[in-house]
Amino acid sequence: MELGVTEPKALSIICRRSTAVVVGLSLMLLSWVMDAAFDASFENGRFLDQLFHPNSYEVTVRVLFMGIQLAFILYIARIMKEYRRQGARLEEALRSAEIERERSQAVLECVGDAISMQDPDLKILYQNQAHIDLMGAHLGEQCYTAYQHRDAICPGCHLAKSYLDGMTHRNEMSAQTRQGLRYTEIISTPLRDSSGTIIAGIEAVRDITDRKLAELEIQRMNGELALRGQELSEVNCELESFSSSLSHDLRSYITRISAAQQIIAQTPQSKDPDLEYPVQSIEESCRGMEELIEAMLTLCRLSREEMSWEEVPLSELAREIALRLRQQEPGRQVDLEIPDALLVWGDRHLLKIALENLLGNAWKYTRGVPVARIELGTELREGKRFFFVRDNGVGFDMAECEKLFKPFQRLRSAQGVPGTGVGLATVERVIKRHGGEVWGEGEPGKGATIFFLLPEQGGR
């Protein structure tokens, strides 16, 4: 393949050199003949004698002259060779420049934006097809005349600014067209040569109607969301006021019922078996109502409470809660396992509420187990650190797991166990306020495990 390509070039070079040699020899012979003719004319000799039998002086002169001719011919041949080499280089450079020009033009055509190029006098040097379709063909014209029908530079011309400060400038414009209101973005960028001198400017006109309409729609939706947020805030304030007033009224009624129950309990008639159960039921109901009201108020406050982020010693909080649980039931034997130095990033008060509910639930649901075990721990899954509270209590059926974190949803396994039904809902709200996840796993009669994931420091 290479021989087939280089062979014509080699033959061409040989032919050119052969021609130069033949022409050179011909000129040298011609000079010998002409000198012989001149000598024959001026010296009255015979031409053939001068041609074939010149004297030594004539031979010396003719050989010297032919040598000068030969040197001149060789010099001319060298110059022609260098000229042809330079011509080939120039032709190759022009071919490369043309290829680069076509490639650059193809890129500019494929960009999608309407692109033009202008010199420092704002004369249009180039337009791609998209620019021609948008503005018309105006090569060689001044841009302010072609596009704006002005006699001078437009006020605030972005391309003129780029020539002055050497920076890229962006302007957004809107215009009413046959397709409706259209928005465009004009980007002007100075073009420099290898020395850094600005020699031209590139102007790109981009249709941003879809993006602009989307931004306007987002602004409208944000305005509506802000309005809804304000309305929701006002409703929350009203609900908070209502909850506070309702809890106050309910507690006043419960207090009166509890006071009446205590008065009845102190009378001799309270020892009557027929009255003992109703009196005890009233006392337990009043206590349960107090706990329910407090739990509901806590659940409501969790969504509004200001969070204070810090490093929280989870192990220390768990030990405080466990100590309080043991003090409430001093005779109960519970194997409670809490590892050292469990640290998390979050709100100390909210995490304490979550732990109180998790450990409190585990404490309640292991009452019927001979050897109760409760564990607070952590494990890694898929590179993430999860925390859990595990017990060996009554457990639950995984078919009911969707009810686990819903307020007032009591599972079948929880029947007969005292509680408000909002403990795990409170836990879920705390964990989600931290940007985490919570879920449960269990089996009837084999205990339950509540897992929760908290973000790493800086991940909130």
Give an account of the 3D structure.
- With 460 residues, the chain is α+β, with helices and mostly antiparallel strands.
- Helix content is 55%, strand content 18%.
- It is built from eleven helices and twelve strands.
- Strands 2-1-5-4-3 form a five-stranded antiparallel β-sheet. Strands 7-9-10-12-11 form a five-stranded mixed β-sheet, with helices on one face. The protein has a two-stranded antiparallel ribbon with strand order 6-8.
- A hairpin with a 5-residue loop joins strand 1 (114-118) and strand 2.
- Helix 9 packs across helix 10 (348-365).
- The relative contact order is 0.05.
- Residues 1-5 have low confidence and may be disordered.
Number of domains: 4
Outline the biggest β-sheet. 5 strands, antiparallel
**What is the CATH topology descriptor of the largest domain?**
Heat Shock Protein 90
Unreliable parts: 1-5
What is the CATH H-level superfamily of the largest domain?
A: Histidine kinase-like ATPase, C-terminal domain
